[in-house]
């Protein structure tokens, strides 16, 4: 609808050490807020009825992890569902994937590197590997 606000929520899922794909969702604030609060990093999810789309690599991979797929999943507020599995239903093979980064270990900058070389990195887009302590609005 023209003139209405739309919100977005993006995340990456994986089901093997080699294969992972970006997921993009658009919709009303209530839908996006509910979706983003429905699971956490490390949860196992089932995604029903996503739309498979070709990704625009130059545009999309600037702010999303580079994936081995030339596709992305698009979630629709009216047609798609994300279901979280209970810890008892989780396939133990998936648990080993929790600590695998989606980037080559040589493709990251440490915070120390950024502080030390900040002047020469000014204006560049970088990959940073860090632990997140908390997230809030």
Topology overview:
Blueprint: E1 7-14, E2 20-27, H1 29-37, E3 45-48, E4 51-54, H2 57-60, E5 71-75, E6 81-84, H3 92-95, H4 111-121
Parallel strand pairs: 2-5
Antiparallel strand pairs: 1-2, 3-6, 4-5
Outline the structure in words:
This protein is of the alpha+beta class. The protein has a domain of 89 residues: OB fold (Dihydrolipoamide Acetyltransferase, E2P) (Beta Barrel). Strands 1-2-5-4 form a four-stranded mixed β-sheet. Strands 3-6 form a two-stranded antiparallel ribbon. β1 and β2 form a beta hairpin. It is globular. The mean pLDDT is 84.
Tally of helical runs: 4
- Low-confidence spans: none
- Overall, the morphology is globular
Main CATH class of the domain at 7-95:
Mainly Beta
Number of strands: 6
Distance between the termini: 26 Å
**For the report, how would you describe the main beta sheet?**
4 strands, mixed
- Spatially, the strands of the biggest sheet line up as 1-2-5-4
SS-derived structural category: alpha+beta
Task: Indicate the radius of gyration in whole angstroms.
Answer: 17 Å
Q: Give the overall pLDDT as a whole number.
A: 84
* Proportion in helices: 10-25%
Pfam families: OB_MEIOB_N (PF24903)
GO molecular function, one term: single-stranded DNA binding
Organism: Formicarius rufipectus
InterPro entries: MEIOB, OB_MEIOB_N
